[in-house]
Amino acid sequence: MGDQEDTMVQDTTTPAGETGSRFMRGMLGFASIMLMLNGGFHVVGGFVALLEKDYYQVGSSELVVSVSYTAWGIAHMALGTVVFLAGVALFYRQPWARVVAVIVAAFSALTNLTFLSAAPVWFALMIVLDVIVIYAATVHFDDEQPEIDY
Q1: Residue 112 and residue 123: Cα distance in Å, rounded?
Q2: Integer Cα distance of 71 and 38 in angstroms
Q3: Band of residue 97 on the pLDDT scale cut at 50, 70, 90
Q4: CA gap 34, 31 in Å, rounded
Q5: d(CA 16, CA 134)
Q6: By CB neighbour count within 10 A (0-12 exposed, 13-18 middle, 19+ buried), where does 149 fall?
Q7: pLDDT confidence of 143, banded at 50, 70, 90?
Q8: What single string gives the DSSP state of each residue in the chain?
Q9: Measured between alpha carbons, how far is residue 85 from residues 47, 58, 74, 79 in Å?
Q10: Which residues of 125-139 are buried (b: 16+ CB within 10 A; e: fewer)?
């Protein structure tokens, strides 16, 4: 009877250092999904800028960078594609993807900041997503580095 009880008990402990890497994998998964979502939002915003010029609250001359909505639409669609692809690379844990994700998310936040007066709520939410991605990609950044005993 004692042998049966021993076989039914499972070892639920994790090896040393696994908790940090499990948390890191979860944060990277979250960041990758948010990057892909944000890339999709950029593409949608680009299509709106190309197709519905009267949708935005201000004219293109009142933006921080005064260019036509057509140019902004193309820029948002291109940036959205890059952001989405960075999210895919981060999802598949490419070694360079964390650094690229932070750079792309920062550039995305700056782009959204320059476009903020056109649709304040929409682009403010996208900036918040960018900041969350930057945090998620950089938290416990040293977990991937091998530990060195001195």
Answers
A1: 5
A2: 19
A3: very high
A4: 5
A5: 27
A6: exposed
A7: low
A8: -HHHHHHH-------TTHHHHHHHHHHHHHHHHHHHHHHHHHHHHHHHHHH-TTSSSS-GGGSSS---HHHHHHHHHHHHHHHHHHHHHHHTT-TTHHHHHHHHHHHHHHHHHHTTTTSHHHHHHHHHHHHHHHHHHHTTGGGGSPP---
A9: 18, 31, 17, 10
A10: ebbebbeebbebbee
The b/e string for 62-77 (b: 16+ C-beta within 10 A; e otherwise) is: ebeeeeebeebbebbb
**Chain center to CA of 147:** 27
Task: Measure the CA–CA gap between 133 and 20, rounded to whole angstroms.
Answer: 18
The residue written with tokens 């416990």 in the block is 140
Q: Tens digits of per-residue pLDDT, 82-96?
A: 999 999 999 998 889
